[in-house]
Amino acid sequence: DPKDHATYMRLALDQAQESPPKPSNFRVGALLVDETTGSILARGYTLELEGNTHAEQCCLIKLAQAHDIAEDRVGELLAGDVVLYTTMEPCNLRLSGNLPCVDRIIRTRGEGGKGGIRKVYIGVQEPEKFVGENKGRAKLEEHGIEVVHVAGFEEDILRVATAGHGR
Ligand SMILES: Nc1nc(=O)c(N)c(NC[C@H](O)[C@H](O)[C@H](O)COP(=O)(O)O)[nH]1
Ligand SMILES: [Zn+2]
Q1: Which is the closest atom of ligand 1 to the Cα of 90?
Q2: Is the ipTM of this complex over 0.85?
Q3: Which of 2, 24, 119, 128 is the most buried (most CB within 10 A)?
Q4: What is the distance between the alpha carbons of residues 33 and 103, in angstroms, rounded to a whole number?
C-alpha cells in the first residue's frame, strides 16, 4: 500500500548515502515507485552503475535490465501511476555532456505523453555549483510531468550530496 512522501524521500536519501564521494558531481538517491500500489520498482544512487551514472539514470537502467530491454525503451514498462522520488531535482545539463536525466525522464512518456513517469518528487533544487540554474522543472512540466517538492530533508540531502566536495 502507498506510503507517505516522506517515507519514500527518506529511502531515496538512504540510497544517496551509498554513493562514492566525488568533487565533480552530487551524491543523489532516487526511487521509481508505482503510486497506486506503493511498490518500489527500482532504487539507485549516483555512480552505482559504471559510466559516470546519475541516481535517476541508474533506476531506469536497472529496471530496463531487469526486463532485458534497452534503457531508452524503459517507458514501455511504466504503465499506470509511476513516479520518481529523487533527493535532488533531475539534471538538465551535465558538465560531462552525458544525456541529462530530464531528457531520460521525458523519453519514458509514450506518444501523446501517455504512460511513463508522470510525477517527480524532489528533495532539493540543484545548487548552482556546476551548471548554474537548473531549468529542468519547466521542461518536465511542458511534457506533462508534475514536479513536487517534498519538504523537510533539505539539510540532510545537501550534506550528503556535497560530501565529496571538501571544504
Ligand atoms: N539530480 C542529480 N542526480 C545525480 O545523480 C547527480 N550526480 C547530479 N549532479 C548534477 C550535476 O550538475 C552534475 O553531476 C555535473 O554537471 C557533472 O556532470 P556529470 O555528473 O559528470 O555528468 N544531479
Ligand atoms: Zn542527472
Answers
A1: 1
A2: yes
A3: 119
A4: 19
